[in-house]
Amino acid sequence: MSLVLNEDQVMLQQSARDFCREKAPVAVLRRIRDSKDPTGYPTELWQAMVELGWAGMAIPEAYGGFGFGYSGLGLVLEETGRTLVPTPLVSTVLLSATLINIAGSEAQKLEMLPDIVNGETIIALALEETAIHNPLHIELKAVKTGSGYILNGQKDFVLDAHVADQFIVVARTEGETGRQDGISLFMVDANSVGVDVQRLNMVDSRNAGNISFVDVEVPDDALLGEENRGWPALCRTLDIGRIGLAAEMLGGVQEVFERTVEYLKQRSQFGVPIGAFQALQHRAAIMYSEIELCKSLVLKALHELDRGDEAEDIPALASMCKAKLSEVYMLVSNEGIQMHGGIGMTDEFDIGFFLKRARVAQQTLGDASFHRDRYASLRGF
Amino acid sequence: MHDLETFRAETRAWLEANCPASMRTPMPEDETVWGGRNAEFRNPDSKVWLERMADKGWTTPTWPQEYGGGGLDKAQSLILAEEMQRIRARPPLVSFGISMLGPVLLEMATHEQKLEHIPKIVRGEVRWCQGYSEPGAGSDLAGLGTKAILDGDDYIINGSKIWTSYADQADWIFCLVRTDFEAPKHSGISFILFDMASPGVSTKPIKLISGNSVFCETFFDDVRVPAGNLVGRLNDGWTIAKRLLQHERTMISGFGLSSGRNNRGGLADNLAETAMLYRGDIVELSDPVLRDQIAQFRIDSEAFALTSQRSAQEAKQSRGPNATSSMLKNYGCELNKRRYELALQAAGTQALGWESLTEDGSDFDQQELAVARQWLRSKGNSIEGGTYEVQLNVIAKRVLGLPDMTAMVGHGAGQKSAGGGKRVDSAKAAEA
């Protein structure tokens, strides 16, 4: 099994890197934050990314996508992680398109996936109900009526909630909270009566929101997949999401690390570059080693996802990726601040943006301890 | 591709016909075949297996046939490894000649030197040891002081080495000696080979915290060595020394690689199983902290195994071991140390027995006693082959390009090194 990129992938990586460096540097995120941009992401830049094919990376060609697979999407996510440009890539392309592709009917896929590829729609996954990632804690209720369902409940920390055209709502149609059976998935228009979105201002300046659903009516064909049987598709989607998010985090980790090592070479104290001090050299070398492990895990997991039906061990790989990247992003973002000293504490300097993004990304779809616990269960202890 | 398929079929058939049945079982530590003039074969099949493999050159599959090697290309050697793995064949021979000296001789020795030494390494006829560290030259290896002074056609060698693995059982030594006493310390070292049976060589095993004695002190008292045994150019031994250290690190990082597998049957192999066994747990490990630590350890082990694979694939694109060997060595050693610390936690006081005082092992069984000794042994992993700290120096300077403090402050200080050379910078030793 190859753990090195092929020629096409190297080219994609290079073009994504060039685009992000030139068009979407960290300054873009800063501008979005400082101008209190109502959309929370750079809409023209997003259209340019769509034109580069980024929204259709992992979507099958039958639905207008480009068949670069998750390895391709992962490379793009990694580059956006290096410059922290906020886009609907995670909410819409990584999570929602994947879930629609796995759970949706042929008609639903034909209706929604091409619109995602063309950048014409933003779809957000409304999953969490607690501050701690817990995909089985689903209390939002969907009750069957004559012509459809009525939804009542609350969703928290929904990525891109306030700019989404539609939500995929994870609801309980049967059974108790904590059970896999009885979970169903619904497509809900954002402007439906009874939907109220409360935008959140998170430390990483990326879009998220809380949504309340009060007597929201949806038709029967809003159901994505089978009633009560939404869990397997959701579970697979979350694993793919964790791997994709780990790829984004890998970009951030490498960027912080490279900027920090560069600073160690530039900054002089006591008449020498501070990078000459062993106390800093050894910590940098430890980070380097950890990052090498992160790269291997992400490469392997993305590669495995693209083996389709032959993919093996995806749940464990997803948990390994998310656990390891969460640990290492925390380490590297903390060291990034410390090694930059006072200037690292200033808002004017970029390094703090990575620290903030790291913590939100760590919590999204499960933190290190969630995934070590899950990994242990998967491995039988 | 067709040729490779033929090669695979032939290899499979040959292995089926020639690998004795007992060589397809897990290898107890004491049946490891090290070769040498006084080789002992606890299992007679080991000798048969070694001879058959050596006849084909498959103890060293990729070395040139000219010197007795297998002459296989990378793809073929991979197939051989896969086919051996398929029947769980034991390695026919393990030696420092194969893992460290041979690759360096092939790269840097004369044709005559290769003809003399390589075939004996391939056949396991000569067991080698490594004369590097000295009492005064550990991490600062280039500060070594063992002297070689030319006398006619011979060098006269005086000095001592320490931590020489298995020196008491070795036939020959590859040794770093000082041949120029005025030059800067890195520029006065030569790489020389000699027979441990030479008059004036003596060894003394060192008892370790594990109770074992794998390392020795080695003394040279007017040892006479033909000048033709010097490898490479005079005073250019540091280049060879560094190259060899890269091979050594690659070998040691293998300790951690096996951390990802569970095939040795000891208490440290499946930590979770051990921990559950000693707690009487059935479904889930009842100590949540230990469970989390084992999960973290295993994730790191799996990631490390993948990184070793990736590094090997990347090395194919360049040539030979690269700077990442330092990183792999370090991570592998730290994983191995973590493994044994977790094993002690997993089995509690039953993993802390020194020896059994009963006939039937009702106090401590063999596995429990083994894990205690292996735990103690593992502490050396981050010292031998360049300490953990030295490897971090190598990564910082060679991979990350961070500046060298010792070069900045030590330059021109003019201190004498142990060997008499100018001490320019001690961290240069780290650049191996």
The chain pair forming the largest interface, with residue counts per chain, is: A-B, 41 and 43 residues
CATH architecture of the largest domain in chain B: Up-down Bundle
At CATH level 2, the architecture of the largest domain in chain A is Up-down Bundle
The total beta strand count of chain B reads 8
DSSP helix fraction of chain B: 40-55%
Total number of strands of chain A = 10
Structural class of chain A: alpha+beta
What's the arrangement of strands in the largest beta sheet of chain A? 1-4-5-8
CATH topology of the largest domain in chain B: Butyryl-CoA Dehydrogenase, subunit A, domain 3
CATH homolog superfamily of the largest domain in chain A = Butyryl-CoA Dehydrogenase, subunit A, domain 3
Q: Can you tell me the residue ranges of chain A where pLDDT is under 50 for at least 5 consecutive residues? A: none
| Distance between the amino and carboxyl termini of chain B | 39 Å
Radius of gyration of chain A from CA coordinates: 21 Å
Radius of gyration of chain B: 23 Å
Strand fraction band of chain B? 5-15%
CATH fold type of the largest domain in chain A: Butyryl-CoA Dehydrogenase, subunit A, domain 3
Mean pLDDT of chain B: 88
Strand order of the largest sheet of chain B: 1-4-5-8
Largest sheet properties of chain A: 4 strands, mixed
Number of H/I helices of chain A: 11
Short précis:
The complex is a heterodimer of chains A (381) and B (432). Chain A is α+β, with helices and mostly antiparallel strands.
Labels describing this entry:
heterodimer, A: alpha+beta, Butyryl-Coa Dehydrogenase, subunit A, domain 1, Butyryl-CoA Dehydrogenase, subunit A, domain 2, Butyryl-CoA Dehydrogenase, subunit A, domain 3, four-stranded mixed sheet, four-stranded antiparallel sheet, B: 432 residues, 3 domains, 8 strands, 42% helix
What do these coordinates show?
The complex is a heterodimer of chains A (381) and B (432). The mean pLDDT of chain A is 97. In chain A, helix 5 runs antiparallel to helix 6 and helix 7 (231-266) packs antiparallel against helix 10. Chain A has helices at 7-23, 26-34, 43-51, 69-83, 89-103, 106-117, 231-266, 278-305, 314-340, 351-363, 368-378, and strands spanning 123-126, 141-144, 148-159, 166-172, 183-189, 195-201, 207-219, 223-224, 268-269, 272-273. The relative contact order of chain A is 0.11. Chain A has 381 residues and is an alpha+beta fold. In chain A, strand 9 and strand 10 (272-273) form a beta hairpin. Chain B is an alpha+beta fold. Helix content of chain B is 42%, strand content 13%. Chain B has helices spanning 2-18, 44-56, 74-86, 96-108, 111-122, 237-257, 271-279, 288-317, 324-347, 366-378, 388-399, 405-410; strands spanning 128-131, 147-151, 154-165, 172-178, 189-195, 201-206, 215-226, 230-231. In chain B, the strands form two sheets. A four-stranded mixed sheet of chain B has the order 1-4-5-8. Mean pLDDT of chain B is 88; it is low at 258-263 and 411-432. The A-B interface holds A 1-4, 261, 264-265, 272-273, 275-278, 280-282, 284-286, 288-289, 292-297, 299-300, 320, 323-324, 369, 372-373, 375-377, 379-381 and B 272-273, 275-276, 284-285, 291-292, 294-296, 298-300, 302-304, 306-307, 309-310, 313-314, 317, 324, 327, 330-331, 389, 391-393, 395-397, 399-405, 408.
